[in-house]
Amino acid sequence: MSDVYAFIEAEKTTHGVAPLCRLLKVARSSFYAWLAGEQARGARRAADDVLAHEITMLHLASRCTYGVPRIHAELRRLGHRINRKRVERVMRERGIDGVTRRKRRGLTRPAKKAVPAADLLGRDFTATVPGMKLVGDITYIPTGEGWLYLATWLDLATREIVGYSMADHHRACLVVDALKMAAGRGRLKPGCIAHSDRGSEYTSDELRREIGRLGLRQSMGRTGSCFDNAAAESFFALLKEEIGTRHWPDRSTARAEIFAFVETFYNRQRLRRHPRWGYLTPLETRQRLEQENALVA
């Protein structure tokens, strides 16, 4: 029937609506009801096109990683009062998808005869004060020159990467350099927990001495239990999916892109759902917590 109404709409200036309706045996009221609905549908399609353009720009700004929840959160932050189901429909119709994380193979190699530290976290990956709980891990990045190894320390209160280091090896000095970076930024408090797995880099005397020098407390999960350091491993899964590159031509290119991802996008732009405040970036979360803790003090 829509085709009949569309024909009447196209020919009404030549033959008139009433004669066409009599000829095609449709009620004029039905035609006008269809016409009003078609105008409304056209307005909705135009509005969806505008929304789709804005969603596309936000998706590109997220390095093509955001799915419906974060796109919806970004639109709300920009002042748009919009239903999440509408965002989901528009993204589905336009084929705009976020990324899905894959499982990764770990680097953990327990050191022989090493004496591990006690587990001070007990899988409690929450914190209310920045600089009191860190989790660390190492991953490897494939390049045309061989592996590039990345060590990071993540603050559990803010989910910021507060320290990181990259090298063509994964000796103990890699994680020590990352920890020195975190301490050098003034983000760590006395007695801060530095939690990791039981890999040889983390049971090394070099790291133990640095942790003692900085006045921190060392913590380790159990051997073979990835869940004991899940927050650190989760960041690497996120990085490898959202950075968008599977294999770099050389280590210097990989270094530059990882630096940009961590410092420009992840810490300052990427939204994460906070249990109390909704979607915030790690930087915004730290600022909120610092303000809140200052008021309490």
TrEMBL record:
PANTHER family: TRANSPOSASE INSF FOR INSERTION SEQUENCE IS3B-RELATED, TRANSPOSASE INSO FOR INSERTION SEQUENCE ELEMENT IS911B-RELATED. It comes from the Bacteria. This is IS3 family transposase. Residues 126-290 form the Integrase catalytic domain. Involved in the transposition of the insertion sequence. NCBIfam families: transpos_IS3. Signal peptide: none annotated. The lineage of its organism: Bacteria, Bacillati, Actinomycetota, Actinomycetes, Kitasatosporales. Gene3D superfamilies: Ribonuclease H-like superfamily/Ribonuclease H.
